[in-house]
Amino acid sequence: xxxxxxxxxxxxxxxxxxxxxxxxxxxxxxxxxxxxxxxxxxxxxxxxxxxxxxxxxxxxxxxxxxxxxxxxxxxxxxxxxxxxxxxxxxxxxxxxxxxxxxxxxxxxxxxxxxxxxxxxxxxxxxxxxxxxxxxxxxxxxxxxxxxxxxxxxxxxxxxxxxxxxxxxxxxxxxxxxxxxxxxxxxxxxxxxxxxxxxxxxxxxxxxxxxxxxxxxxxxxxxxxxxxxxxxxxxxxxxxxxxxxxxxxxxxxxxxxxxxxxxxxxxxxxxxxxxxxxxxxxxxxxxxxxxxxxxxxxxxxxxxxxxxxxxxxxxxxxxxxxxxxxxxxxxxxxxxxxxxxxxxxxxx
Length: 347
What we know:
Elements: E1 2-7, H1 11-20, E2 27-33, H2 37-47, E3 54-55, H3 58-64, E4 69-72, H4 79-88, E5 92-96, H5 103-116, E6 120-123, H6 130-140, E7 147-155, H7 171-188, E8 192-200, E9 211-218, E10 223-229, E11 242-247, E12 250-255, E13 266-271, E14 278-279, H8 289-303, H9 313-331, E15 337-338, H10 339-345
Parallel strand pairs: 1-2, 1-4, 2-3, 4-5, 5-6, 7-10
Antiparallel strand pairs: 7-11, 8-9, 8-15, 9-10, 11-12, 12-13, 13-14
Helix pairs in contact: 1-2, 4-5, 5-9, 6-7, 7-9, 9-10
């Protein structure tokens, strides 16, 4: 059994404890940690775990039990100290996205993980769905020739979809688009070179900008057009957005994550000169979404080898850089911002 300590039992953390962790074979939670008695009480009732498994601090839990992995499912600003403490204690760590509040903090944690020879994973759960898995494979083997341009649309209505943080800064780019930016890098198999982004604030629910448009240039020349809205009045897209990938010999269109099942995943290819798109058979995954992240982490720790699509901390710094570059570009009225500039100024 792979033994984990879970830190953070709030609304999202309690869902991890109740729904996600028990769904992955070979995982045993040996301790739960939260400083709020009410959170502990709720998770204890949900999981029926004995009281002796609950602690008010990670330090107390580490003294009391042995574990392989620390799972950090607490608020973003608390990620850095908890992840650092777990790494310094010699444990592997899986942490919710975004895994640090700043790129500088993220880079410090990556260096610490390397020094301790520990695996640091960011739960970029959208990677663990069948449509992006197949899209990644098709682009990598150039099934329809060279990729040239990509259009990605995301539309959701946060106020009516259960969004609970209207005053958060950059609710689109930092809270939601991190998923899309990470998928871009995964599916294209490339890192971004520079971005140009404009954002604005429609409606009154969000205090800060909740809609935006960005042009993103990747290092191999692919241009990606991104349109996103957290307050769209139109038909919503699945959470991974709607993708159109234009290649030399046709087009790949796909979407993913309608809810937390694979029911909404689909991928079609349209070959050059043919009018009718072809629906493609999607791969079957044993675990999806956050369970996919946790299963991949357990496999990495057990085998010492990172499985495919694994979002290590070192890799995920590049997704954080995309977030930071878009926010910076938007603050400059849409001026181009180089990713290297963002990474350099964070050091």
